[in-house]
Structure to design on (343 residues):
């Protein structure tokens, strides 16, 4: 974990999703970016992320523009899994609360390093702790509220109603307005302690073995491998082609891996994307096909999902179109590939 904000970063995909949520709350995103001369630019040697200092500056401006006292809390209480991408999906398909919490920690680096979660096991309890690296008090307050409310919301949504029993501790002071303080209890559905040494959710240890109602072991295994692969790739991105491939994989999770979206994720035009890939003797279509084939083969090998489901997952509307494409790429139909011995 970086010791200073200047060494921190945040996923550009997460930042864009947060701005989408903000726009739905009345934030004029275009005006915000223009008035404060913000550009969602990737870091030179880490193209999936933007600098932590720039993220904090943008976050402060957005909070002030919204002018809502509990912005972080309210957004966190209804945060969508798509904001956190594979990290959220990996957690939601875990088998138990224990593996849910472990999944968050495993894939959290994909989101960035402006915060870090850790799990402490105490006698009869387990503590999910979140450390915030932001410096500005306003940014810290809302970031803490957002992340803690998101974690509590995800936990509550993945277990049977009435089974979750926890306590929340926050590192910032309580609001001076008692109505706002009461809102914390309503969002977290429990007593909330303020001015605590750390931000934490305390769960009874007995809940660790509780099953997750959205468990999908096969999909979870696929997502876990994908998360590990992406983290390794982000450590070794060396060419523009590698960078584009990484963006295609990331955007495909949301069904958004179009040429235009890939170019936008890199803050360039589609024409520039085409030119730079041509300079490396490849194309968007070639890279997309490579990513599609890799993901299709993985799903066919390690899950029992239907051919139509696999087709949809990698961006095909029709199963027969996918089958024809897959046969051209591999020389066999998806059903034949599935019957091969473990690859």
């Amino acid at each position: 974990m970086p010791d200073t904000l200047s060494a921190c970063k945040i996923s550009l995909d997460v930042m864009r999703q947060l701005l989408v949520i903000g726009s739905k709350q009345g934030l004029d995103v275009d005006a915000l970016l223009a008035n404060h001369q913000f550009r969602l630019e990737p870091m030179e040697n880490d193209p999936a992320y933007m600098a932590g200092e720039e993220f904090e500056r943008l976050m402060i401006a957005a909070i002030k523009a919204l002018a809502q006292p509990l912005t972080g809390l309210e957004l966190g209480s209804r945060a969508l899994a798509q904001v956190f991408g594979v990290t959220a999906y990996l957690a939601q398909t875990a088998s138990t609360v224990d593996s849910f919490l472990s999944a968050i920690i495993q894939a959290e680096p994909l989101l960035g390093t402006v915060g870090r979660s850790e799990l402490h096991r105490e006698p009869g309890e387990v503590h999910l702790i979140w450390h915030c690296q932001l410096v500005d008090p306003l940014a810290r307050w809302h970031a803490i509220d957002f992340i803690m409310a998101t974690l509590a919301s995800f936990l509550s949504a993945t277990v049977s109603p009435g089974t979750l029993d926890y306590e929340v501790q926050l590192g910032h002071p309580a609001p001076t307005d008692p109505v706002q303080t009461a809102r914390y209890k309503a969002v977290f559905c429990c007593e909330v302690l303020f001015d605590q040494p750390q931000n934490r959710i305390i769960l009874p240890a007995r809940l660790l073995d509780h099953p997750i109602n959205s468990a999908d072991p096969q999909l979870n295994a696929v997502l876990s491998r994908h998360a590990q692969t992406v983290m390794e790739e982000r450590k070794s991105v060396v060419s523009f082609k590698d960078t584009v491939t990484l963006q295609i994989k990331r955007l495909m999770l949301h069904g958004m891996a179009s040429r235009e979206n890939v170019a936008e994720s890199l803050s360039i035009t589609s024409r520039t994307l085409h030119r730079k890939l041509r300079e490396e003797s490849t194309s968007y279509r070639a890279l997309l096909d490579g990513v599609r084939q890799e993901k299709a083969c993985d799903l066919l090998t390690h899950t029992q999902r239907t051919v139509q489901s696999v087709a949809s997952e990698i961006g095909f509307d029709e199963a027969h179109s996918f089958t024809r494409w897959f046969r051209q790429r591999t020389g066999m139909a998806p059903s034949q590939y599935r019957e091969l011995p473990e690859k």
About this structure: Residues 137-158 form the longest helix (22 residues). The longest strand covers residues 115-122. The two ends are 36 Å apart (CA to CA). The chain has two domains: 5-209, 238-338.
